[in-house]
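Exam revision sheet. Question 4 asks you to relate a sequence to its structure. Input first:
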Amino acid sequence: MNQFIFESKHKTVTVGMMLVGVLCLILSYIMEPAALTAAGADGVVHNTHARFWTNFLHNSVFFTGISFISFFVITASVTAYAGWYVAFKRLWEAMGSFMIVGMVLLLVVAAANWLHINHLYHWAGDIEGDRILEGKSAFLNNYWYTFGTLIIIGIWYFFWRKMRSISLDEDENGTTAYEHHKTTRKWSAAFMPIAGFTSAAMIWQWVMSVDGHWYSTMFAWYSTASWFVSAISLTILLMIWLKSKGYYSEIHDEHMHDLGKFLFAFSIFWTYLWFSQYMLIWYANNGEETIYFRNRQDNFPILFYGNLIMNFALPFLILLRNDTKRKYGTLIFVSVLCLFGHWWDYFQMIKPGVMHTAQEYVNHAAGAAHEGGHHAAGFVSGFTLPGLIELGVFVGFLGLFFYVVLATLSKAALVPKNDPYLEESFHHHIGYGGGSEVHH
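Answer key, structure tokens:
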């Protein structure tokens, strides 16, 4: 079968997941931890609803990034003359379609910044007298955040639409002269440097600036590697599910092995970036990084060390053997682990910094600033660790992502029949000696 059918039962499941997410978002708005509320002298309770806004920001950035990096991988593969992925490139095209939804979600955050109702970012409030934030104000401001989000994701989506249209037209009008592919290569080469610079600028805005006094020269690489591992995890899960439904019979163990190798290699690459960012404190004498890691290591140890266990130790040990990259059960397990692990990674990037900002705000608003205010001690629901509400929001956004991807996937043939690298993809063979049959 070369045409995916988005059946009503698929829609029911994904919509059900979205409803769970909406319910949990509502609960996160209502159930603000006591540590992030304070009563003023007049009896008014001051509340930032930080749990709601962090959950919304966390998942919006996470899934928008997965969409972006899925499209970026296509452009990188085209530019590198790669052919192995072509048989399933429509899946990555479909994953790229979520970018426009992500733009809308992040513009909601931007609007809340303007209205001063989310308190996610210290720089979006009163920074008078804060020399560090005043020095960064040319970049960390609502104008940059809003128009950066609108214009930059708009550019990404424009390139996606352009390349998607070329890909679909190639199915109908492709020739042996490969004119479509040559055009695709030009657009891919143009997109890659744009994507590299703009994605770094926006991840600094969306995530790094929740700790406004901190910066890292490695952060863009680090967070993008997290997106990539998550995208490969979702690719493996969707591919195995589609194959179980009778689709993508052309995809064989060689393709799955390569996806598994990507998962293995970039889990190690992510760890290298994590370690390099951490070690900059010493080998670059970069004291500005200390507060970020000290806060997480001392006050959020389960988040901090759990991040390394889920995203490095377990994937490394599980995928080290060659044959585990061909066993569907193992690939499903490690893909679920890595997807959740890098969602956890973004959780620990965002939650501790916002919690500090929210505490400062409620203490100041309640008139407790001169006494030093109150700070969270011990467990803070939805911040120290993900709770059931956070997991429900994750399920909701995952359902939204699946709905958009599967709807897009159903609008075109699963296999691009006139791509010049299609035969290479069908006959892809990596020379593994495990005795696995190569399907032609």
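Marking note for examiners. The chain is about 65% helix and 0% strand.
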